[in-house]
Each structure stands twice: as structure tokens, then as C-alpha cells.
TrEMBL record:
Domain HTH lysR-type: 1-58
UniProt name for this protein: LysR family transcriptional regulator
UniProt similarity note: Belongs to the LysR transcriptional regulatory family.
Pfam families listed in its UniProt record: HTH_1, LysR_substrate
Organism: Streptomyces alfalfae
GO cellular component, one term: protein-DNA complex
Keywords assigned by UniProt, alphabetized: DNA-binding, Transcription, Transcription regulation
Length: 306
């Protein structure tokens, strides 16, 4: 099977319309139709049900789509790894993340990538959450680890994982010895949150909204460390990242939340419409594969891949 034929097939499988697919691929409809016939001859089966001027992907087509995606991803990975062997010394990935993300996911992701590509050069910087996307849009960095997903169509985004949120309470609080707490139980609590324009503030508000809870905001802070100090002082309770983003603080207990939506989605962001460096493309491919492997491992009750 020809690689271009497979790539074109994936677009056709998505659109199920020859004219639309050909337009997206910038090729003639007749060229696309011939490619489809070659694929069907090679597969020994029709890949679409035809009728009423449209195509419908059939069972054979769905099988080929699944394996074609996997095969093309593997070939892209092989090409990137071969290119990495001759990678110029100045091909560096500039990555940025907010402080609350620097202790979760990012260290493990970078360690695993260095094992995969030991010659890769990565510069990692932390910056205030409200500056991370500005750095990305300005071209000061190649990629960013962010949460939540940016609401900006200039930014591409790849989900990497979900980080649970825990409830931070003073050690003598009524919830301190609980194994789990429901968000609905916080209706009468004073809540400390991040100030506006910070990613964790947006996540916290969304989590409360989905639980139909309107928090009574007692204070706002610029970082998680300050929030933890306020909690320890008895000024209120707070939702904080569970994966290491919340620094330990004397006098504070972290209690898991029972609500299914009590987490934040973390992902890799890049600037759309800008030529992606080879280093960035290779890292994005690796991050996607690792995220898939981690999700599969968790689904089977296994530990995360090294």
C-alpha cells in the first residue's frame, strides 16, 4: 500500500465525501478516486459503502483506518528518530510551564524523553500562568505545558493527562480526618482561590460550577504556596493540585475529593500557523505516545511507564 494513498484515505474516511476530501488535500477528485481503488484492490475489499452521492466507511474501512493511523504514526516516529541522530547541536526545544505544573507530569515527561532522545536539548523555564501563553504567542518559547486548555484558536493543544484536585484544610478542620469530601459539602466553607487570570482560578471555578456550588471566597492569592499558608492560618479551605503542584505545609491536610470532575486537564500547547521546529515536532510526537501509554496503563491498573 502506498503511503500517500493511506494518508489520503484517512482524510476521506473523516469527510466521507470525495469532493471535500480532494479539496482539503489539494488534489483532483479523479486522483483521489484512483487512490481509493488501488487501496481497495490491495485490501481485497471495498472500504466504503456507496450511495446517494456520499461514502460511508464500512467495517473493512474502519479496520484499515485504525491500522493506517498506527502505521503512519510509527513511520513518522521512525523518521523523527533517524533525524534526531543527525540533529544539529543548536536544535533546542524551549519549553515553559506555570509553577503549579512544574512538580507534576513535567519532570517525568522530560526524564522519559531524555531516555528516548539522549541528545535532545531542552530549556525549561517557569513563569507566571498569565505570561505562559503570551510567551508562546510571541515566539519566545516553542511549546508550553498548560492547564486548562487555552481558549484561543491560535494555539494548538494536546491533552497529556488529568491531575486530581485535593481539598486543603487546616489540620484541626472538621474534614481533616476524612478519606474523601464532596464539593457539595463546601457550600458553607470560606474558600481561598487564585486571583483572576491564573489558570488554576479558572479550573477551580469550573469545578465548583459543575458541582452546582457557589463558593464563598474568603481570599485570593498569587500562588499555591501562599494559598497553603493561608489555609494553615485558618483563613479558609482551598482546592489545590494533588500531583505535587501543592507544596507541603505544616498544619495543612490534603483530602481527596469524591467528585468525578475534580481534576484539571493538563496539555501541551504550541502556536498554530508557525513553522514547527524538528525538536518541537519530535517532542510533541513523543508526548502524545506517552500520554496514550499512561492512559492505557492506568486503565489496566498498572503503574505509569518509565
Amino acid at each position: 500500500m502506498d503511503l500517500d494513498d493511506l494518508r489520503w484515505f484517512l482524510v476521506l474516511a473523516e469527510t466521507e465525501h470525495v469532493t471535500e476530501a480532494a479539496g482539503r488535500l489539494h488534489i483532483d477528485q479523479s486522483t483521489l478516486s484512483r487512490a481509493l481503488r488501488r487501496l481497495e484492490k490491495s485490501a481485497g475489499s471495498e472500504l466504503f459503502d456507496r450511495g446517494h452521492g456520499r461514502l460511508r466507511l464500512n467495517d473493512a474501512g474502519r479496520v484499515l483506518r485504525r491500522h493506517a493511523r498506527r502505521a503512519l504514526d510509527e513511520l513518522d516516529t521512525a523518521r523523527d528518530r533517524i533525524a534526531a541522530l543527525a540533529e544539529p547541536a543548536d536544535d533546542t526545544l524551549a519549553l515553559v510551564c506555570a509553577p503549579s505544573l512544574g512538580a507534576w507530569l513535567v519532570p517525568g515527561l522530560l526524564t522519559a524523553y531524555r531516555q528516548e532522545a539522549p541528545r535532545a536539548r531542552i530549556t525549561l523555564r517557569q513563569d507566571a500562568a498569565e505570561h505562559v501563553l503570551s510567551l508562546l504567542l510571541e515566539g519566545a518559547v516553542d511549546a508550553a505545558v498548560t492547564a486548562p486548555r487555552p481558549a484561543d484558536d491560535r494555539i494548538g493543544w494536546l491533552p497529556l493527562g488529568e491531575e486530581p484536585l485535593h481539598l486543603a484544610v487546616p489540620e484541626r478542620h472538621r474534614f481533616a480526618d476524612r478519606t474523601r469530601v464532596r464539593l457539595a459539602e463546601l457550600a458553607d466553607e470560606r474558600v481561598i482561590i487564585m486571583r483572576r487570570a491564573l489558570g488554576l482560578r479558572e479550573v477551580t471555578c469550573e469545578v465548583f460550577h459543575r458541582a452546582a456550588v457557589t463558593p464563598s471566597v474568603a481570599a485570593e492569592a498569587d500562588d499555591v504556596a501562599t494559598i497553603m499558608a493561608m489555609v494553615a492560618a485558618g483563613l479558609g479551605v482551598s482546592l489545590v493540585p494533588a500531583g505535587g503542584g501543592a507544596p507541603t505545609a505544616s498544619g495543612v491536610r490534603l483530602v481527596p475529593l469524591a467528585d468525578a470532575n475534580a481534576h484539571r486537564q493538563v496539555g501541551l500547547a504550541w502556536r498554530e500557523g508557525r513553522a514547527m521546529t524538528p525538536a518541537t515536532r519530535r517532542f510533541r510526537t513523543f508526548a502524545a505516545q506517552r500520554a496514550t501509554a499512561v492512559e492505557a496503563a492506568r486503565a489496566h491498573g498498572l503503574s505509569e511507564p518509565a
